[in-house]
Amino acid sequence: MSLIVERAGRVHIRVGGNTQDYATLVKSLPRGKVIAKEDDGNSNPTLTPSLLYTPDLLYMLANISTLVNANWYLGIPLNDTTNLRLAIAEYGERILGSHLLGLQVGNEPDLYVRHGHRPGNYTPYDYFGEFGVVVAAMEADSNIHATNNLMAPSVATGDWTPEEVWNTGFVASYTSSLSALTVEHYPDDNCAALYPGFGPAKDPQAEFPNYLTHAAGKSIVAPYLNSSAIALAAGKPFIMFETNTASCGGFPGISDSFGAALWAIDYGLQMGASNFAHGLLHVGGQDVYYNPFTPPPTNQSSYHKWTIGPIFYSVLAVAETLGPTNNSQIVDLEANANNNYTPGYAVYENGALARIALLNYMTDPSGANSYTATISVGGGNTGQPNAVPAQVYVKYLVAPSVGEKFNITWANQTFGGQFASDGRLQGVQTVQTVACNQAANTCAITVPAPGFALVFFSSSALKESTPSSTVTFVTTTMSKHTDVSIDASVLATSNGHSGKDLDFGSTSRGSSGGGKAAGVYPSIVLLVAMVAGVGVVLKAAANQWP
C-alpha cells in the first residue's frame, strides 16, 4: 500500500463482497478472535459462509491508516431489511473517522434472485424501496452522524442493467444520501472450474487472446458510458466497485500473466477516459490467480516473503500515469489508426500535456513487432505553435512475453519471483532520456513487444510520479516460541494452512478464497474532451527493441 500512496497520494480499499450482506458485528468472539465464519445455509453460489467480526477489525483498519494514507469502503448488511444491522456504520464512523470513504448498500442486488436471497419477483423498484429503508434507519440512528456517504447500486450488470435502476428515479430521489454511483463487473468467469451449475469449464488458452487487445477494455467500459454521463450530470463520482480479469478467482495462465498487467493498464486508463472516478481490483486468498499480491502460506515468525502478481505492476504504472494531483484529464488517442494492439493515451495536467502512455500487446522476441511512436505536440494543422520539448523521459514495463509471470520489470526494478518479495522494488531504477527533434516537432519513442512505455513531458511530471524512497515498517510482535527452519523449496510447493474453523470457499464472488478489493486507481476529475489547442499525433514504424 505504501508503494501506491507514494505515487498516487492515497489508496482506496473496500472491505466487503458477498460476505457483507450476511455479516454481523459483535462485541467479542471466543478465544479473542476477530473474525469467525458460520454456515447458516445462506445459499451463496460460491459457498460463502456468514461472517461474524468484532470492532477490533475496524481498529486494525484504523491503525493501518495511521501508517499509510489508506481509506476504506465498508458495506451495510442487506439480507434482512426488517432488522437492519447498522453497527458497522456506527462503529465505522466512530473508529475510522475521515478515513471512512463510504458505505455500500447491497452487493450485486441484481443477482439476489439468482443466488436465492430474494423472491423471484424482486425488481429494481424493490431495491429502490430497500435503499430508502436504509436511509430512513440511518437518519433515525443517533449514533450515525454522516448519512450522505452511501454507495449504490453496485449492480453486476447480470440480471439488471444500471439503467433499470436509474429509471426508478433512484439518483434524484436519493441524491442527498449518495456519495457515489457504483457498478461491479468482470469480463469473464472461471466459475465452472470450481463450482457446479456453471456449465462446461473454459479453456484458459482459448480465452487468453480476448485480453490482449485494446477492444478488451473498451468492451467492458462501453455498457457504462451512459451511466458515467448520468453520474457526471448528477455531480457524483462513478466507480467500478469490483473488477478483475475473471470472477471466481481468475484463469491460470491469464490472470497471473504479464498480459493481464497490460490489460489492466489499458482497462484502467480506458475507465479514466470514460469518466470513471476510479476502479477497485478484487483481491482474494491463496488460491486466486489474479491477486496483485499474496502473503506466504504460513505465519511470518521467520519467513517474510510475499508473492507479487503481474497485475500489481499495472497498479504502479497506472498510478504514475495519472499522478497525485487529482486533476488529470485522460484522452484515448486511438493511436496508430486505432490499432487494436498498440493503443495510446494522453494525460493532461491543468491543460498541459504531462504524460503519454503507450502499449504494445504483441509478443515478438525478434523485435520486429516493436514499434516507434512519433509524437508531435501542436504544429501542423492544429493552429498552435510547435510544443515538443527538447527531451522527454521514459519508463518501461517489460517482460519476455505476455505469458510471463515473474520476470517483469518496471523502470528496471522488480519484485522477483514466487515467495521472493518483502514488498519493495528491487534493483536500480532506470529512466531513459530521449532527445526530441524540436525543428521537426517530433519525439520518437520505442515501444517493445510486449511492453508499456510511460513518457513524461517534463522533469516536474516525472518527479511528481516518482517516489524518492519507500517507507517501511518494523514487525511489532515477536514469537515467544522456538522457530523452525523450513526449506524454501518445500515451502514454495506447500499448501499452507487455513485459519478457518469451517471448510468453505470464497468470501466474495470474485474469488475462491478471500474477500476484499484494493483500490488502485486514484480518484480524479476526468474529462473526455481533448484540451483545445494541443494536438497529439502518433505514427508507428517497425523498430528493433535493443
Automatic annotation (TrEMBL):
It holds the Pfam family Glyco_hydro_79C. Residues 344-454 form the Beta-glucuronidase C-terminal domain. The chain crosses the membrane at residues 520-542. InterPro entries: GH, GH79_Enzymes, GlcAase_C, Glyco_hydro_b. It comes from the Eukaryota. Keywords: Membrane, Transmembrane, Transmembrane helix. This is Beta-glucuronidase C-terminal domain-containing protein. It comes from Fibroporia radiculosa.
